[in-house]
Amino acid sequence: MNPSELFDIWAPAQSTWSRWAKPVLFTAIGVAPPPMSSEPDSPPLNLRLPGRSVVVVDLPGVDSVKAGLALAEAGYRPVPLFNGAPGPTLTLGGSALIDVRPIVHWLERGAERLRGFPLAADACPAFLLDADRQAPQWRTAAPGRFDNRWLVFPQDFPSASFLLAQRIECAVLLQPSGRTQPLSDLAHVVMRWQEAGIQVQVWDPDAGALQPVQVARPSRFRSAWYRVLALTGVRRNSTGGFGAVIPEPSSSG
Questions:
Q1: Mind listing the pLDDT tens digit for each residue in 86-139?
Q2: What 3 state SS string does 123-158 have?
Q3: Quick one: which of 125, 144, 203, 219 has the fewest CB in 10 Å?
Q4: Neighbours of 104 (CB within 10 A)
């Protein structure tokens, strides 16, 4: 299948939520070589979700895609929001700060499986993020590297009023074990939902249960300057999403 066909499987036209899906990583389908080793499927999520819920999967890369497929098996529509461009070098040891090859591989690998699930057009959404979208601290953002770190903004998600109109009254966060609050960029999204009366819960894999959470108010919440200031730390890509080569510092004579 070509990138367009694969994207249509992940974001079918009939789905209520496909308008939010990001096509950025699908441009690398068939271009990015597969990872050195192929990771096995993850076991089903033993997760009982309350009523009609929106799920935000904020797990590291491949784990997010795997969780999305597990949720699709349970009747949820996985919506990929990965928004960091692949970069000019896709081989192992390439220039990108975030190695997206495993995510690309699993989007391709999971397409056939996803196509086999009879999901309703109005199936509740599971938005897929990469928890490492700001890149591990050990990666050096040096000149010449491709900086594909990225952020999410409220505009990347449906509004609280849209969710409520779809009879969704609960938001569930799937995050790495031990994290009870959303990352700061996601907090700007979830806080808006919570203010509108949507209950927020966090899945605790260690306890095997959902825990209600009050989202801490993030810095510059609802500030007109928030988006401008947040974007100063990332690099936009001309083809969509985030990603650009870090320039060499200019020298003065």
A1: 877 555 456 888 888 889 999 999 999 999 999 999 999 999 999 999 876 556
A2: CCEEEEEECCCCCCCCCCCCCCCEECCCCCCHHHCC
A3: 144
A4: 28
Q: Is residue 253 part of a domain?
A: no
Which pLDDT band holds residue 14 (cuts at 50, 70, 90)?
Answer: very high
Measured CA to CA, the distance from residue 25 to residue 28 in angstroms comes to 6
CA gap 144, 96 in Å, rounded = 9
Tokens 């056939």 found at? 112
Count of CB atoms within 10 A of residue 44's CB?
11
In a domain, 174, yes or no: yes
Closest by Cα among 133, 234, 174 to 49: 174
- Count the neighbouring beta carbons within 10 Å of the beta carbon of residue 140: 10
Query: What are the C-alpha distances in Å from 124 to residues 74, 79, 171?
Result: 10, 10, 11
The torsion angles phi and psi of 10, rounded to 5 degrees, stand at: -80, -25
Asked whether the beta carbons of 167 and 50 are under 8 A apart, the reply is no
Segment holding 7, helix H or strand E: helix 3-10
- 95 and 245 Cβ atoms separated by less than 8 Å: yes
**CA–CA dist 128, 154 (Å, integer):** 15
Residue 252 domain flag: no
Burial tier of 122 (Cβ tally within 10 Å: 0-12, 13-18, 19+): middle
Closest CA to 17 of 125, 117, 154, 110: 125
Count of domains observed in the chain: 1
